[in-house]
Specification:
membrane, porin, Porin, about 350 residues, Gram_neg_porin_domain, 3 helices, transmembrane beta strand, mainly beta
């Protein structure tokens, strides 16, 4: 009888411990068709898209996130998220290249993450791109998106901290040590010398979001010589019948004014500075939006029109269109196909989340 009671006690304790930990499988799957001006329709980017295999509206990923209650209001968290899955071919792999971090969280002091994670810029300024950082993003196509500073919305070997929410105010900070930085060399002539020496990188962003109003500002120091400190500000206001947003940012590349990211050669780093305007209106389960971006340094503009229809809480249909106004077409090279001047891109498909 005593052995049975002991066994039951052990099982009960084990069950309580298991209840304090959880691991969740999640993902985003985007499949559809798209094309660029002068090229052919194709599944998930179609002919001529840089990289290929990525959804037009969202990046297809699978991830695992978990949390453990350590007691006293302290939690241990982790997140592993794959690089983009290719749903149109057999090129799918499980490389956790987007999120790979472990962290601690406390109810009174906030949360800290160590590893590879979304950048502070992506978390702070991503809310002002109403269609997400999709292929049709006018912000990114004009080369002035704060989300894709340094060509990526991710940072490796980063320590990132976020405060608790104080009446709508949150502060984020990121740090990457000099020894963890890697350097890159763009095409000859694009950047002034000296260029290439790695620097410790600091990011700081703040958001106040309360009711219909959201205001954010952030900056990120240069990762290597030849770059510059990047900064961005944004504001949005929800009028219920329509939500409006405006941003201004200066990108990180020094010495060039930026370029059209549909027409550009691979390997060039986007620079420039400029502003954006956006509006999105809900219509029951659907929304329709328009976004405009102006790169004042490079004299490039982009207009984006999009629509989404929610088939359920987890599945939606989308149509996206973007046109970039830039006269600089790019000739074909061994690595990339030709890109037309004044290019446009269009895509439609389905996104399912789980």
């Amino acid at each position: 009888m005593k052995k049975s009671l002991i066994a039951l006690a052990v099982l009960a304790a084990s069950g309580a411990a298991m209840a304090q930990s959880s691991v969740t499988l999640y993902g985003v799957l985007d499949i559809g068709f798209g094309k660029v001006k002068g090229e052919k329709w194709g599944m998930n980017n179609g002919e001529g898209y840089s990289g290929g295999g990525d959804g037009f509206n969202s990046t297809s990923v699978i991830g695992f996130r978990g949390t453990e209650d350590l007691g006293g209001g302290l939690k241990a968290n982790f997140n592993l998220q794959t690089s983009g899955l290719d749903l149109s071919s057999s090129g799918t792999g499980l490389n956790f290249g987007r999120e790979a971090w472990v962290g601690l969280e406390g109810a009174g002091w906030g949360a800290i993450q160590l590893g590879r994670s979304s950048s502070v810029a992506a978390k702070v300024m991503g809310a002002y791109d109403f269609n997400g950082t999709s292929y049709s993003s006018a912000y990114d196509r004009a080369g002035i998106s704060a989300v894709t500073w340094y060509g990526s919305s991710r940072r490796s070997s980063q320590v990132q901290y976020v405060t608790p929410n104080f009446g709508g105010f949150t502060l984020r900070a990121g740090y990457t040590a000099k020894g963890d930085q890697t350097t890159s060399t763009p095409s000859v002539g694009l950047l002034p010398a000296p260029y290439g020496e790695a620097k410790a990188q600091y990011s700081l962003g703040a958001t106040f979001a309360n009711g219909p109003l959201s205001v954010s500002a952030m900056g990120e120091s240069k990762a290597q010589e030849g770059m510059r400190t990047a900064y961005a500000v944004g504001v949005s206001y929800d009028l219920k019948v329509v939500k409006l947003a405006a941003t201004y940012n200066r990108r990180e590349t020094e010495g060039i004014d930026g370029y059209n990211t549909i027409a550009a050669n691979s390997g060039r780093l986007a620079g420039g500075k400029g502003w954006t305007l956006a509006a999105v209106a809900p219509f029951g389960p659907a929304n329709i939006g328009v976004q405009y971006a102006r790169n004042t340094g490079a004299d490039i503009s982009a207009v984006e029109v999009f629509a989404n229809y929610a088939l359920s809480k987890r599945t939606r249909f989308y149509v996206d269109f973007v046109k970039t106004y830039d006269q600089n077409g790019v000739a074909a090279t061994a690595a990339t196909p030709a890109r037309p001047s004044e290019p446009y891109a269009v895509g439609l498909g389905v996104v399912h989340t789980f």
